[in-house]
Amino acid sequence: MLENSSQPMNKGTIICVDDERNILLSLHDSLSQIATGYAIELAESGVAALSIITELSQNQIEVPLIICDRAMPEMDGATLLTQLHQQFPKTAKILIAELAEISHAIQASDRTHLYRYITKPWDETDFSLTVREALRSYEQAKQIAVQNQTLKQMHLELQREIANRRRAEALLVYDALHDTLTGLPNRTLLVERLEQAIRTVRYDSTYQFAVLFIDLDRFKIINDSLGHTIGDELLVAISTRFRQCLRNTDIIARLGGDEFAVLLEEIQDTSDAIQIAQRLLESLYTPFNLKGHTVAASASIGVVVGSSSTAYDSAADLLRDADLTMYHAKKTGRAGYALFDRQLHVQTLKLLKIQSDLHQALERQEFILCYQPIVALSTGKLIGFEALVRWHHPQQGLISPGDFIPVAEETGFIIFLGEWVLREACRQMHQWQLQFPLHSPLTISVNISGKQFSQVNFVQQIEQILLETGFDAHLLKLEITESVLMENAQSSTSMLSQLQALGIRLSIDDFGTGYSSLSYLHRLRLDTLKIDRSFVRDVDRSVEQIEIIRTIIALAWNLGMDVVAEGIETKKQLFQLRSLKCEYGQGYLFAKPLDRAAIETLLAQDLPLQYLS
User: Which pTM value belongs to this model?
Assistant: First the structure.
């Protein structure tokens, strides 16, 4: 190997290989003039050239050009260039040959991947042009390689970005169609599948499906007593059990809160849906163990079958009927199911009509109050009234409270209706006080709903009503059910204390049908217990009912409370209640709920009601 006399460069190294020293020196002189910026290495044999290239490769130095003589001892130029191509495929290769050897050079060009060959002796101008073009070709190839690598990297990054976006989009779609707590499909996905099932029915008359609308019983009590964390864990555990009851083709969705819905596709008949409903209910028989708490759960299910005979137009209509059927199941006894029929659909339309008319009824003054007398059982003396709202509908006539009160409760309209009842009852009672000044003061009892009682401004609202009407707070009795008091246990004590501070008296309505504890009753210090009519109904012929009422009366006396028996309809019931020392009562035996004119006649007569019945 000959030493390189050129200065260190940074563009790479050009290697010249020839077994004749004078040719190497001539190549060196020519390249020094035309290849500025490149180092030049001279090798007198192919073996020496391979050694140089190995060293350059180890030092990561580029070799843009190799100029090699064709005919050399040990290793000819074609063989050398063929080997070098494997290691430096982008390197430009020029083969020098005698004029007589040109045919051999041409034959070797394919396997050696020659850039060009030149003849000895060469023309300096041609040599200079060839070298410059070779170096330019190498630089262009290198730039293209860099660009290709950049494009390849960009392509890979683009592919990753597309994949990431697709995953993100898939996740967004999944999240949009599934419940975050349970992982179940949500209402949106269920509705999509329901609409698809409804479309299938239209072109396949043999296709049937069913929807099961599920609502957990008393879930609010679990949330309020054990906390929302336990409530959420219960929902997840219930979801798991429900899934185990279904086929892979069935869909169970969480609609929100404690409501679920199941879509059963391709059922044979209604019995298939009923069987699944029973299986779902049975899955809840075993209590759940959640963070040290044993929690019992049950559910009510409404079942609707979709077929060519039912012809539903939309998923919304179907879910509406399933929801209504579920509430029917809940009313007839929790932990059961009900099957939808057309009569329920008629009732649904009726309820929808009631719901739409309720809000206008107040503005149109269609509500009136009736007053049922409350008497002292020992004398028949009138001591007060219970205010009961009635609705005179302009088209339907008198609508039963049993029809519109539940709708008012469900829609929240009960808050506005309840406020009107309170205001009207206090206004009317104050007017009667002025109209009949000689009559002893009479109390008015007004029923309070759970939604009213939970209003943060409820006490201030009543205080304002008393101020507006001028009615004496000591003559106002608010009747609240056991269930309302217990469902709002934490806030009830404070609320009741504020009401009592105003002088208002408080009653537990329908006592005996709820689940209040004796210690809680003692802490509340209420004024009156009202015995539910279900106990009074059989008091004249059931020893068990007699003992229940005797116990309630004794409890009331021990707590310093009055007792009022509801639903007294016969003299036998009256005599039995008197014998049990029940102080007060109301019922059709004395008087049904009366309108304003009838009450004014009653007050004018001022007679014991046992003689008027």
Answer: 0.55
